[in-house]
Design brief:
The complex is a heterodimer of chains A (about 230) and B (about 350). Chain A has nine helices and no strands. The longest helix of chain A is centred in the first third of the chain and has 31 residues. Helix content of chain A is about 80%, strand content about 0%. The mean pLDDT of chain A is about 95. In chain A, helix 4 packs antiparallel against helix 5 and helix 4 packs across helix 6. By secondary structure, chain A is mainly alpha-helical. The two termini of chain B are about 30 Å apart. In chain B, the strands form four sheets. A six-stranded parallel beta sheet of chain B has the order 10-9-8-11-12-13, with helices on one face. In chain B, strands 2-3-1-4-7 form a five-stranded mixed beta sheet, with helices on both faces. Chain B has about 350 residues and is an alpha/beta fold. The relative contact order of chain B is 0.16. Helix content of chain B is about 40%, strand content about 20%. The longest helix of chain B has 18 residues. The chains are: A mainly alpha (about 230), B alpha/beta (about 350).
C-alpha cells in the first residue's frame, strides 16, 4: 500500500505546480467568498469574517508547501480553473442568492476540498502533510457552518439547493477531470476522489434534510456526462 | 443497533436492484461508476426474538462488486469495505457483520493496518465477521441433512473444500470434537496452510478435490471464490449432500441430479418474519425468514448486548465459541435451514 513518491522529480514538480496553485487559489477564493457572504448576511458578519481569516491562513500554509518543494505555482492556470465556478458565485451574489452562494462555497467547494485533502494526506510530503492535516480540520468546521444554516432554512430553500446543485456540481466534475492526470502523478486516484466527495457531500445533504434517494440523485448530477 | 454490511453478486444484479429500489441514478451505471459509489444505508430492520426482545438495525450496501476483484481493482475493493465500515461506525451502530466478501477482503488485504479512514479511527470491536455462527450453522446443517437424507454420519466421508479458511477450519474442529464420522478429507488451494491445519487437528487427510469428490458422502464448500465452482454430478456418489457455503449460491441450479442434495450452507431460518427488503434482493427462498448466519450473528450479539468483535482474525474460531453462539442462536429463534 505504501507508494514510493519522488517529491523532487520533474514530473512531480510539474504536476504540483498546477495542483498547488489550485489549492492556493481555492483558499484565496474561499476567503473572498466568505467576505461576500458577510456582506450578504450582515447578522452573521463576524462568523463569516472569522471563516475568511482561516482561509487566508490556509492560503499561506499552502504557499509555504510550494516553496518547500521549490515549485512555482501556476497561478494563471488556477485562475482559469476556477473561472466558471467563481463566475456562478459572483452572479448569485449580485442577485442576492444567499442559498446558491452557500451551496457553492460552503457545501460543494468545502466537500471537494475535504475529499481532496483527505486523499492527499497519505501521499503528501511530510511538510505538506502536516499543513494539510491542520487545514482539513478547519474545513470540516466551515462545512458544518454551511450545513447548519441550510438545515435551519431547509423548508424554504430546498428547491434552491437542488437548482444550485444542478447548475454547479457538473462544473466540479469537469474541474476534477481537468486535473485527473496531475492528481494521479501526486498519488491521488480520480475514482477515490469522486467516492470521498460523494461520501462527504451525501453526509452533508443528509444532515441538511434530504432523503437517501434525493441524495443519490443530487450527488451524481452530471457525473456520467463528464 | 446492529448493522449488516453486504454487497450484491454482480454488476447486473446491482443495476437490477438499484432499479427495483427506485435508485434510478445508480441503475443504468457501469462498473466505473460503482467503483466510485459511496456506501449507503438502504434498509432499516426490526428483529424480534423468541424471548420477546426486539432490536433495530440497518443494512449498509458497500457498493463493492465481485467484478472489482476479478478485474484486480484491489485498491477499489479495499476502499469499499473501509468506507462501509466507517459509514456504519459514523451512524453509531454497536455491532456490524461483514457479509459476503467484506470479511475476506478485510483479512486477505490486511486492512487491520489501515484503520484510519479520513477523520475516523475504525474501532474493530464494533465489527464481526459472523464466521463463528456461520461455521456453527454449517455443522448443524451437516448433522440435520445427513439425518434427513439417510446418510449415517458414523460411516460417512466428509470433505471440507476450503478447509484452511476461517470457516472451513472451524467446521473441521467442530466435526472432530462433536461428530462421529469415518473420514474427513481436507481440500484447499494453499497446501502449506492445509498441512498446518492437519497437524493442529491431528486428524483428517489432505487431498485434492479431484480425488476427494468420488469418495464423499458430504461435501462442504467454504472456499472463497469470486466466481462459482463448476462440478460435474457424475463425479459424485449417490446419495451425496453438498453444502454450498459460497456467495453467491449457484450449486442448486447447477446440479439437479437424483440423489444429490444441495443445501444452502450458512443460511438460517428465523422463527418470526423480518420486515426487510434485502433478503428478497439476494434471492432467498423465504426472504422474510431466511438470512445469512453471519448477519444473524450481529443480531445475536445485539440481543445479548455482546458489543464486541466476537468473530475476528483468521482461524481463531474455537469450538467453545461456536457452542456459545449456538446456544444464543437457538435461544433467539434461529435454526439451520435445510432446504
Amino acid at each position: 500500500m505504501t507508494l514510493e513518491i519522488d517529491y523532487h522529480s520533474p514530473s512531480y514538480c510539474d504536476a504540483y505546480s498546477r495542483i498547488n496553485a489550485i489549492v492556493i487559489e481555492g483558499e484565496h477564493k474561499a476567503h473572498d467568498n466568505y467576505l461576500t457572504l458577510a456582506e450578504m448576511l450582515p447578522e452573521l458578519r463576524a462568523d463569516f469574517v472569522k471563516l475568511a481569516k482561516m482561509e487566508e491562513k490556509h492560503k499561506k500554509g499552502f504557499t509555504a508547501c510550494g516553496k518547500n518543494l521549490n515549485v512555482q505555482p501556476d497561478m494563471s492556470f488556477a485562475q482559469l480553473f476556477f473561472a466558471e465556478l467563481h463566475g456562478n458565485f459572483q452572479k448569485a451574489a449580485q442577485g442576492g442568492e444567499v442559498v446558491t452562494c452557500l451551496v457553492i462555497q460552503a457545501l460543494l467547494i468545502e466537500c471537494f476540498a475535504i475529499a481532496a485533502y483527505n486523499i492527499y494526506i497519505p501521499v503528501a510530503d511530510p511538510f505538506a502533510r502536516k499543513i494539510t492535516e491542520g487545514v482539513v480540520k478547519d474545513e470540516y468546521l466551515h462545512l458544518n457552518y454551511g450545513e447548519e444554516w441550510l438545515k435551519q432554512h431547509f423548508s424554504t430553500c430546498k428547491s434552491q439547493i437542488e437548482t444550485a446543485n444542478r447548475q454547479n456540481l457538473p462544473l466540479i466534475w469537469k474541474m476534477l477531470n481537468q486535473v485527473e492526470q496531475d492528481a494521479k502523478t501526486l498519488g491521488m486516484e480520480k475514482e477515490a476522489l469522486i467516492e470521498d466527495f460523494m461520501i462527504q457531500y451525501g453526509e452533508s445533504l443528509e444532515k441538511i434534510g434530504f432523503t437517501t434517494k434525493e441524495i443519490m440523485k443530487m450527488s451524481t448530477m452530471g457525473l456520467v456526462a463528464v | 443497533m446492529f448493522g449488516l454490511i453486504g454487497h450484491l453478486t454482480s454488476l447486473e444484479h446491482a443495476r437490477a436492484v438499484a432499479k427495483r429500489l427506485g435508485f434510478d441514478a445508480y441503475a443504468e451505471q457501469g462498473l466505473e461508476f460503482w467503483c466510485s459509489a459511496p456506501p449507503q444505508i438502504v434498509d432499516e430492520i426490526t428483529v424480534k426474538s423468541l424471548t420477546g426482545a426486539e432490536i433495530k438495525g440497518v443494512y449498509v450496501e458497500s457498493c463493492f462488486l465481485p467484478e472489482m476483484l476479478a478485474s484486480n481493482r484491489i485498491k477499489t475493493a479495499i476502499r469499499k469495505i473501509l468506507n462501509a465500515m466507517a459509514h456504519a461506525q459514523k451512524h453509531g451502530i454497536n455491532i456490524t457483520a461483514l457479509g459476503g466478501f467484506s470479511s475476506i477482503i478485510f483479512e486477505n488485504f490486511n486492512l487491520s493496518q489501515l484503520l484510519q479512514v479520513r477523520n475516523i479511527q475504525l474501532d474493530i470491536r464494533r465489527f464481526t465477521t459472523g464466521n463463528t455462527h456461520t461455521a456453527y450453522i454449517i455443522c448443524r446443517q451437516i448433522e440435520e441433512a445427513s439425518r434427513k437424507y439417510g446418510i449415517d454420519l458414523a460411516k460417512a466421508v466428509i470433505t471440507v473444500c476450503g478447509a484452511s479458511g476461517d470457516i472451513g477450519s472451524a467446521v473441521c474442529r467442530w466435526l472432530i470434537t462433536h461428530t462421529d464420522f469415518r473420514e474427513l478429507l481436507l481440500v484447499a488451494r494453499n497446501q502449506e496452510k492445509l498441512q498446518q491445519l492437519q497437524a493442529q487437528l491431528g486428524r483428517g487427510t489432505v487431498t485434492d478435490l479431484h480425488s476427494a469428490l468420488p469418495q464423499s458422502d458430504i461435501v462442504v464448500w467454504v472456499a472463497s471464490m469470486a466466481k462459482g465452482m463448476e462440478i460435474n454430478a457424475d463425479q459424485l456418489k449417490r446419495p451425496c449432500i453438498l453444502i454450498d457455503g459460497g456467495y453467491p449460491k449457484n450449486m442448486e441450479n447447477q446440479i439437479t441430479a437424483d440423489g444429490i442434495y444441495v443445501i444452502n450452507g450458512g443460511i438460517v431460518e428465523h422463527s418470526y418474519d423480518i420486515n426487510w427488503k434485502i433478503m428478497d434482493i439476494v434471492n432467498m427462498a423465504a426472504p422474510a425468514r431466511h438470512l445469512f448466519a453471519c448477519f444473524a450473528e450481529s443480531m445475536l450479539l445485539e440481543f445479548e448486548g455482546w458489543h464486541t468483535n466476537f468473530s475476528w482474525g483468521r482461524n481463531q474460531i474455537t469450538v467453545d465459541k461456536m457452542r456459545q453462539i449456538g446456544e444464543v442462536s437457538v435461544k433467539h429463534g434461529f435454526r439451520p435451514l435445510i432446504a
